[in-house]
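Subgroup meeting minutes
Present: P.N., E.W., G.H.
Scribe: E.W.

1. P.N. recapped why we're keeping a running log of single-chain structure predictions: easier to compare across weeks, and new members can see raw inputs and outputs side by side.
2. G.H. added today's entry (388 aa).
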Amino acid sequence: MAKSVSVLGSTGSIGKQALDVARFGNYKIKCLTANANVDLLEKQIREFKPETAAVADEKAAADLKIKVADLPVRVLSGVEGVCECAALQADVTLNAIVGIAGLMPTLAAVEAGGTLALANKESLVTGGELVTQTAKKKGARILPVDSEHCAIFQSLAGCDDKKQINRLILTASGGPFFGKSKEELANVTLSQALKHPNWEMGEKITVDSATMMNKGLELTEARWLFDVPARNIDILVHRQSVVHSLVEYVDGTVIAQLGVPDMRLPIQYALDYPIRHRSPVKQLRLEDYGRLTFEAPDYETFTGINLCKKACEMGGLYSALVNGANEQANLLFRRGRIGFLQICEAVQYTLENISPCRPGGASEIFETDRIARQAVNKYFRIETENTI
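Output recorded in log:
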């Protein structure tokens, strides 16, 4: 019987690649959701024929209802509709929503006690303790989709004792600007920041990769996924993106997972787990690469990694504070309101000068996010700015 899959954020980069995997593997798509791209969502609904669809934007949802009125699909709207889709009993729910907007659907999915394939790192960056505790309480399973965390998950196979782990090593491509000085980065443009050397991703995460803030967020995600302290997680720049991450054990053994840089591979692994099937991804041939290189990150130029690590070590909702500041500064850069280097500058200001809420539930996380975005706007003397 075909495995049933719900794809949250199906019109984004990861969502589209997940549907490519579903098409190849003949999965049954139970639910699709989008933020507002109803034209593409309509095409996906007509191809995959899900039982339910949801659109976060209320007006766009109303438009979709008209477009698919001839189909037997239930159309939901708003955040509540997306969360209802997340809670549906599919065999696997893939959360590919971008940013903190993915937190509530993640909580809805783990509350339902099913299997969550998580591509939304912000769920764990902002609400790691809440999400992991809820998953444990409800018996839900979280499978990582980010290539780095999927690699660590595979490299930990057979390890039942965390005391055997010396450190986790996340690899980073370094983005389009690795090796550049701060002076060289002062006037880079959005189009330059979006020229990632290895991966096909959406704009927000591609800019995060260019600042290397993405790697700091992934460090925080790894801390919660694998219950390993931030001090035991390191970053290694690997320009070829073939070694996706590594685990170093206390005896000195290092186990790594390798593959071509194609997100369909970790997506399929999460959807098929624990069974492996043939995939649409081409075979890795190391002779095509010739050599693989590894370097330490330039922490002075790309300050985001250490900001995330510091927030993670501070605990509480400081990581949520850093994430909110980064999301807002990233947005302002993409809208041409600030310079590239000012992204991490704003995050540092927020971390050093603003206090988050006390940890509690989702409301405290979202309030911390609001405070962080407000602080970034104030830092740049921007009185009003749409943060969605």
